[in-house]
Amino acid sequence: MTVDSRSTKAYLQDKNITELSKQYQLDWRIIKKYIDLKSPPFNQRIIAKPIDQYTDEVIRSEPAGQTVKSIYHSIHKKGHQGTYSSIRTLAQIKRKERKHDTKPTTLLSRRKLSAII
Question: What pTM was computed for the model?
């Protein structure tokens, strides 16, 4: 049962929108949106990118000292059809993670959170 269905049932049982927003720790406008929904919210699917097949190779090559251009040419020879900027962006993200030693965290949108709950 999702937040939207529970909030709708509670609203129909004479609970106030502000009480529901405090209970679920959401803004009252979000609760109102869920109450007014006629159908459950849809989840957007994650579209696969051309670079996804080669992320491991980029992650291995970049700290080894290869430039982004040499990584691009080696991956392009293996059949990569994506752009140079996609490889450059991936390398920048991985450098920043390595530099700041960030731990990967999972971010959930409100829709995904409501679907999980």
Answer: 0.49
